[in-house]
Amino acid sequence: MKQREKAVYTKRVTVRLRPTEFERLKTEFKKSTCRKFSDYLRQIMLAKPVTILHRNATADAFLTKMIGLKNELSAVGKNFNQLVKKLQSLDHISDIKMWAALNETSKKILEQKVEEIRQKLYQIYEQWLQK
């Protein structure tokens, strides 16, 4: 398999900018997908397309809250599952075993809802990444 040759840049270009112009370039660079400021400037000077990221602040806030909610729901589901398993292990109390069996359907409903939320968040996340 051939290794890609590393680009060697030997020529230097010096440009003087006003502080406001420099800050504008830095701001636009931060919105781009370029990892280095020099790569960003090189693309602009050579009239190559620059990919700009657009982030929706409200979507960021929404996703942050929803991910927290998903994690909390997962924790509740795990705790519920542990409780049911613990109660089922108590053989000498038949009422507890009956209660655990009856609540098995509640557990399944909870797990389904957590999974629905997880899938919806994943869909939103995928859409958000494509923008």
Architecture overview:
- The chain has 131 residues and is an all-alpha fold.
- It has five helices and no strands.
- α3 runs antiparallel to α4.
- The longest helix has 32 residues, at 57-88.
- The chain is rod-shaped.
- It starts with 18 loop residues before the first helix and ends with a helix.
- The mean pLDDT is 77.
Output the radius of gyration. Answer: 27 Å
Q: How many helical elements?
A: 5
Shape: rod-shaped
Order of helices and strands: HHHHH
- Assembly of the depicted chains: single chain
| Sheet with most strands | none
Weakly predicted, low-confidence segments? none
Mean pLDDT: 77
Strand content bin: under 5%
SSE topology:
Layout: H1 19-31, H2 37-45, H3 57-88, H4 94-102, H5 104-130
Helix pairs in contact: 3-4, 3-5
Write a compact overview of the structure shown:
By secondary structure, the chain is an all-alpha fold. 69% of the residues lie in helices and 0% in strands.
Q: What attributes characterize this protein structure?
A:
single chain, 131 residues, mainly alpha, 0% strand
